[in-house]
Amino acid sequence: MSDYKSILSASCPMPKLDFEIITMGHGSGGLLTHKLLDAGVFDVLSNEYLDKQHDGAVFDVTPGKMAFTTDSYVVSPIFFPGGNIGELAINGTVNDLCMCGAKAAFISLSFIIEEGLRVSDFWEILLHIKQAADHAGVKIVTGDTKVVERGKGDKIFINTSGVGKVHPEAAISVDRIKTGDKVIISNDIARHGIAIMSVREGLEFESDIESDTCHFNHIVEQLLEGFGNGIHFLRDATRGGLSTILNEVSQSLSKGIAIHQKDITVDESVAGACELLGLDPLYVANEGVFVAFVEASIADQVVQKLKSWENGLHAAVIGEVADQHPGQVVLHSQIGGRRVVNMLVGEQLPRIC
């Protein structure tokens, strides 16, 4: 990824402009808007759809089910260890489609920029957007740019929508989860939330903690190709963390979920930061981790497939669905105890996506 970023930066140097910051005029739709977009946005994100510079995109779709999603990104700070708001926006939109059993294909991209944002920061965000889109294999086909007055935004907000074709073998629905299904986590947890918190609060730890932001476009396709409707449900563990996702499922089904602490990996530095801050990693946000509910008979194979993925080294079966304690998630601790893991109350970490 870093090598790709270097190549991209070299091939797409920031253009020489007669302005260094974004002004209200850049959102007017007039000359300054065109200068901003023509100075590199269209060139960096160029494809056969965006090049038409129309208000929308027209494309062919093959027969079958399509998935559609939309999201807005207001993360603060806009640059954080391991990524920035641009990369996050693309990955997050791709992943929402993946959790529907779809492969993301086309994305719309809209900026709401606060007057005063440095053009160099906007360019850095743009390059990360290009990098993330290329790695996920998606095309940005339309978009919009608006500018708000200084003090009425927070540097930059990004809105996206995405569409993708649902895999023919996908049957992703919470209603398909049944007693005995295994619960799988795709990687270690809590890195994104702690990375954001470290920058916001000016905290320093013994080792750098980077966001886990990444896309699932290829790995979910491979899982569906290999295991089809044996995969009952998928959900990314973003806001509210792992505990919130499990509680939502448990309450929706009126079934119990048992999880095992020994099987849930938390990076040593992340665990130390959580202990210092008084946070439970189960409630801390992720941006590159998803939960899968699968047939018990294929669980080990699914984990092995995830472990072959660069972002799934710590994938594991962490629990199972049970008839006992309906509507509750129960954690079996490493020392042999048990406790109920409730849903997150309030907002533990601000502005993580």
Automatic annotation (TrEMBL):
Domain PurM-like N-terminal: 54-166
Domain PurM-like C-terminal: 178-330
Gene3D superfamilies, per the entry: PurM-like C-terminal domain, PurM-like, N-terminal domain
Family matches, as CDD domains: HypE
GO aspect biological process, one term: protein maturation
PANTHER family noted in UniProt: CARBAMOYL DEHYDRATASE HYPE, HYDROGENASE ISOENZYMES FORMATION PROTEIN HYPE
Family membership noted in the UniProt record: Belongs to the HypE family.
Name under which the protein is recorded: Hydrogenase expression/formation protein hypE
Underlying gene: hypE
